[in-house]
Automatic annotation (TrEMBL):
PANTHER family: CDK5 REGULATORY SUBUNIT-ASSOCIATED PROTEIN 1, MITOCHONDRIAL TRNA METHYLTHIOTRANSFERASE CDK5RAP1. [4Fe-4S] cluster 2 binds at C214, C218, C221. GO terms for molecular function: tRNA-2-methylthio-N(6)-dimethylallyladenosine(37) synthase activity. This is tRNA-2-methylthio-N(6)-dimethylallyladenosine synthase. It comes from the Bacteria. It is found in: Cytoplasm. It comes from Alicyclobacillus tolerans. [4Fe-4S] cluster 1 binds at C68, C104, C138. Binds 2 [4Fe-4S] clusters. One cluster is coordinated with 3 cysteines and an exchangeable S-adenosyl-L-methionine. The gene is miaB. PROSITE patterns: MTTASE_N, MTTASE_RADICAL, RADICAL_SAM, TRAM.
């Protein structure tokens, strides 16, 4: 298979950095600002209406989403386009006329799940010849996946990638008329698209993309290949979108990007810290979150902006990946263990009580027992509030996939368990410190398991359950913690009050 890594790196090197004489540092190079194009909703509304079925029923769609918040948000955009075309949501696969898999390629098991599902849907396709099956997202960017669909899953009608998601209406219309699989995957994003229609989840929380792509090229990670180079949206577009969200009643806004602290580097006249301050000063803004930040470029300017912006919450997700310098270097992470610990100290000095969460990979190729123990020691030292932990999964065409891997799967699983056991007990201890405390909770809605119980979040993103009426949804309440658990806090409502730091 063609080596996308070389293709991408060389392409970007020649075009942007080398020609401008800026030189290049591996993994930290910059691409120029992406051009921004408005999306034509009027054209979409006129040209790609789906109409009704002969039975008079509407056409219905179902999107199965895998992976990160970015994918969840892409699904909101695609749902927006589909509903503008006249599609309505389906409650299950049987009643859907269009089933779309919005996929993740970060780890192999996500891919296995998707193909398992597509296999199971084949009989449905035989029963309903009008049914259109589609695959998009990060997996669709992989040449190997495109070939697999063509060779083994020809009943998939439509494949498109992350860079041409806005072409869904045209492509779906084509797929409905075609006997063959319609496949359109762009290798890069020529523009960032604005004004895309969105159907957001109801509630208090909303995601806002501030940046697409990633320039870091961590050796294990497929994201720079599936999502392309970093592109920042213009601040005025981001601020406009947030103003509209505030007007629509959303209270808790998460700014999304693979390296949010790199926001604006390509624009040249804006930093993420400046953007945060601008969002913070919007009329009516309540809570501001952001994810994911990278330890490498987490500046003092950014720490100060978080500390000084009252609406920016005291929660930072700061993926460390490993506690060992040799492994970090082989991962092409741009931080060392010491730099990470120093950063944590600087953050804690300036933002007392800040909640820190992280991502950790165990069993990276060649990771020794001692090197893994460095990760355990780092976890013990930092005492994260929570950690997302993963067994290393080799991704085709990434550099680490060629590294010799001597660690057995059984050993990797055992390391994951040791790490999780340690983290769970730290998380539990941290949660127990909240007994008796009164926390500021933004009420999100009824709990998933009991309609008489409300669920809400603290500024630090802790899930809190307590008895209350649905009239409180969207409001801030004070809840006294009575029963802390590892993943949630149970409590009783004390009063309805304005926002105070939890
Ligand atoms: N941009 C974010 C960062 O660098 O912190 C992370 C984005 S990535 C989609 C989410 C997490 O998946 C990573 O932080 C990493 O822990 C994990 N991950 C990525 N590639 C992986 C792989 N090949 N095997 C196992 N875990 C992986
Ligand atoms: Fe980029 Fe994060 Fe993947 Fe590293 S782990 S390449 S920073 S998306």
């Amino acid at each position: 298979m063609e080596n996308l890594i070389h293709q991408l790196r060389e392409g970007r090197l020649k075009k942007h950095a080398m020609e401008e004489g800026r030189g290049l540092v591996f993994g930290t190079h910059r691409s120029p600002a992406a051009e921004c194009a408005p999306f034509d909703i009027a054209k979409l509304t006129e040209q790609y209406q789906v109409g009704q079925k002969v039975s008079g029923q509407p056409y219905r769609y179902l999107i199965r989403t895998y992976g990160c918040q970015m994918n969840e948000h892409d699904t909101e955009v695609m749902a927006g386009m589909l509903q503008t075309m006249g599609y309505e949501p389906a409650s299950d696969v049987e009643s859907a006329d269009f089933i779309l898999f919005n996929t993740c390629a970060v780890r192999e098991n996500a891919e296995d799940k998707v193909f398992g599902e597509i296999g199971r849907l084949r009989p449905l396709k035989q029963r309903n010849p009008e049914l259109v099956l589609g695959l998009c997202g990060c997996m669709a960017q992989e040449k190997g996946v495109q070939k697999l669909v063509q060779d083994k899953f020809p009943w998939v009608d439509l494949v498109f990638g992350t860079h041409n998601l806005h072409r869904l209406p045209q492509l779906l219309t084509e797929a409905r008329q075609s006997q063959e699989t319609v496949l359109e995957v762009w290798d890069y994003a020529p523009q960032t698209m604005e004004n895309l229609p969105k159907v957001r989840a109801q509630g208090t929380r909303a995601w806002v993309n501030i940046q697409y792509g990633c320039n870091k090229f961590c050796t294990y990670c497929i994201v720079p290949y599936t999502r392309g180079a970093e592109r920042s949206r213009l601040p005025e577009d981001i601020l406009d979108e947030i103003r509209n969200l505030i007007a629509d009643g959303y209270r808790d806004i998460t700014l999304l990007g693979q390296n949010v602290n790199d926001y604006g580097v390509d624009l040249g006249n804006m930093t993420f810290a400046q953007l945060l301050r601008q969002v913070n000063s919007l009329e009516g803004i309540d809570r501001i979150r952001f994810t994911t930040s990278n330890p490498w470029n987490f500046t003092q300017e950014l720490i100060d902006a978080i500390a000084e912006s009252e609406h920016v919450v005291e929660h930072i997700h700061l993926p460390v990946q490993s506690g060992n310098n040799r492994i970090l270097k082989r991962m092409n992470r741009s931080h060392t263990r010491e730099a990470y610990l120093h950063l944590v100290q600087r953050i804690r000095d300036k933002i007392p009580g800040v909640s820190l969460t992280t991502d950790i990979i165990v069993g990276f190729p060649g990771e020794t027992e001692e090197e893994f123990q460095d990760t355990l020691k780092l976890v013990e030292e930092v005492r994260f509030d929570n950690a997302f932990t993963f067994i290393y999964s080799a991704r085709e065409n990434t550099p680490a996939a060629t590294f010799e891997d001597t660690v057995t799967l059984a050993e990797k699983k055992a390391r994951l368990k040791r790490l999780n056991d340690m983290q769970y007990s730290i998380s539990r201890e941290k949660q127990e410190q909240y007994v008796g405390q009164e926390l500021d909770v933004l009420v999100e809605g009824p709990s998933k398991t009991n309609p008489d119980v409300l669920a809400g979040r603290t500024r630090k993103n802790q899930l809190v359950l307590f008895a209350g009426t649905s009239a409180l949804v969207g409001q801030h309440v004070k809840v006294r913690v009575t029963e802390p658990q590892t993943w949630l806090l149970k409590g009783e409502i004390v009063s309805h009050r304005g926002e105070e730091s939890a």
